[in-house]
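Help! Submission page says 'invalid entity' but I think these are all valid:
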Amino acid sequence: MRSSYTAVLAVAVLSVLVAGSAASADELEDLLVQVGRDYAVGYSSPLIHGFGPSQNANLFHTAAIPRTRFTFGVGVKFMGTYLAAEDQSFRTVRSNIDLGDYDPSFAGQNGTVVMAGPTLFGDTETDGAVIGYANGIEVFRESTIPGLVDTRWVPMVTPEAYVGGLAGLKLIVRYMPSIGTDIGDVKYWGIGGQWNLNAVAPTLPVDVMIGYMTQKFEAGSIVEADATSLHLGVSKSLPALTFYGGFAKESSSMDVTYVYEGTGTDVSFAVDGRQETRFTLGLTLDILMKLNVEMGHGDLTTYSAGLLFGY
Amino acid sequence: MKTDSRRILSALTVLALLGLVAGCESDAVAPQDQLPPLMAQDAAYQTGLVAAAITQIGPRLMQSTNPAKQVVDITWAGEHSLTGTVHIDYRTGPDGAPAASSEATWARLYTDAGEPVVYTVPDLGGQTMFDLDIMANLDQGADQATILSGSGGTMASGDNVVTFALAGIVVGSGGYPLDGGMTITAGEHTAEVMFNGTNIVTMIVDSSATYFIDLDTGEVTTGVPV
């Protein structure tokens, strides 16, 4: 009874978070359409580089996978990449360019353009600016957009299920049902597999696992984020408690597409996430349900927690 | 009992490791580009603007509209591309008593903090902000002021700020500065201007490149303007 109540509560929290994500994606498009490509790349860079590490967090909570006993679980994972304080603002400089690309009245005039202001995770009360310099003199300044949400966290939440137990293999699935929004459907899925190496090295004092996971997030036609992780996990289980750690080679990318209102032109860019490796350390408490907390560190630091029901 | 101790010890070890990871800050990922350094040509261009502005502002030391006043405010509302206010404090000397502007032998021309004089750049249309602090000895008989060493100010435009030092510049109540020099520091570059009583003056940047300034427009050329 208590587990059922907790599960209902988790789903309720999840629904609020997913609805919030959809609304935020909608608001993000409302902001991005007001700026050109170069500004949008700087503005959204913390999301571009921070979302992948969140996606690739909490991919396992133990390296132990039974060889001949069915195992199954379902639950929810919460992740957040904690950004550096500097990432709440950005400054992109383009030198020796035609200022007319940013202000038609300066067509043919060479100079420098500075795009600066809050990132989408920056101050929501302050607008950014595009500033043009010719001969070191500021010749135009155009106000742009404020931050979307003032936080250092790049959050994510996802339902997850796993099934396995044959020859040390486990299948993991992450999936969110499609949610209709003004910018289109927001959807997310991921699939991965893990194999317990103790199947071929039964004398190892700890459980060892290798795994691979691929994930895709889409927010209408504006954002598409992919992430993959090839990971090695090690764990030691005690009654009701499992300690685990791991190392992962990972990649992520984000494609952003929108129509710039200023010129009516399509803007599209794809950027690879900076983080390529991570070390993971975690702890799983197994009493009635599995509750795990995890920290991962690579170029960015990610914190996550999971709540799983199963056996 | 032994198992419990091991479990507690293990948990503490993991928590300590988690603490270590928690202390790991994320690297910054948003671009934080710096403005490119000013080029020598940029320094020359900006020096031209400072020289043109000083040519307009300097003679006001000798142009008091009210000879009896000891402190005079001068406001521009677009004339000569200038907007803003400067104050001139007339005295009998640097440490002397306040004096009527028609009798003073020393004056200080300055802008209030945070209220620069704006010089709108001809042609480009950009704006530069001047903070000024200029001291001068006044020769009422010759109708001339000699700007003293230690005078100068800054010209800011966006994130670029140049500093200038004035010394020995002689100005009358009209016309162009008659004599003296001005040194400007713009980024890594230094420019020196020598006034000569005409609208065309010579500027040397980084002790090597020679330019000419038309004080009427601030325009900078590499050859003598015709």
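Support: the input was valid. A stray whitespace character was the problem, and the output above is from the cleaned input. DSSP finds two helices and 13 strands in chain B.
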